[in-house]
Specification:
The chain is α+β, with helices and mostly antiparallel strands. 22% of the residues lie in helices and 28% in strands. It has four helices and eight strands, in the order αββββαβββαβα. It comes from Cacopsylla melanoneura.
């Protein structure tokens, strides 16, 4: 989302698109919103959405979720970590789901900032309970390339791998994760 969601009308436009596409859970990054909040927003057409976000105090970064009315009551807990990491627990059958939304520092940030981010992300996903499914999503500011890498990166990655892509692959390897959008052809 260019320029974040702090411009009038952008949130409503996004909620309309989410509604039109029947998306129940949308992770958002670069909201550029301050503080943290959890509120209900209604479209003129009466569809309701729950917005949960963490934005820090600088109007930079910012992460969150937009949840449809169908799923909003299934949220059993919210974990606000930072302006780059937020998580929710969803009560579901047959297993509950632990969803983490993140926004990775860009390539121009210091190695220390990137290492700190991955440390925070690591401690957040370690809050997943044994009987939960983990979904990690977000803006990883990375390119993975188009080479299949074990069970982590599928055959449909894009571009030429950059350092952030290698960092993401290393993190996925460490936590036995795979990058789902590389396993199907992009349209």
């Amino acid at each position: 989302l260019v320029q974040g969601l702090n411009i009038e009308g952008k949130l409503e436009n996004l909620m309309n698109e989410i509604n039109n596409l029947n998306v129940d859970i949308c992770g958002i990054s670069e909201t550029h919103w301050e503080d943290s909040s959890d509120f209900i927003s209604e479209l003129p057409s009466k569809e309701m959405f729950r917005i949960i976000y963490s934005g820090g105090d600088t109007k930079r970064n910012g992460v969150g979720f937009i949840l449809s009315q169908r799923i909003m009551k299934s949220v059993s807990s919210v974990i606000i970590v930072s302006d780059r990491v937020i998580a929710i627990r969803i009560e579901a059958t047959p297993m509950n789901i632990f969803i983490v939304q993140c926004y990775t520092p860009t390539f121009d940030k210091s190695d220390e900032e990137k290492e700190e981010f991955y440390g925070v992300l690591r401690s957040t996903i370690n809050k997943k309970m044994f009987h939960e499914i983990l979904v990690l999503m977000g803006d990883f500011n990375s390119k993975l390339g188009n080479n299949k890498i074990e069970d982590i990166v599928g055959p449909y990655g894009l571009g030429t791998m950059n350092n952030a892509g290698q960092d993401l692959i290393n993190f996925c390897c460490e936590h036995e994760l795979f990058i789902s959008n590389t396993w199907y052809e992009q349209k």
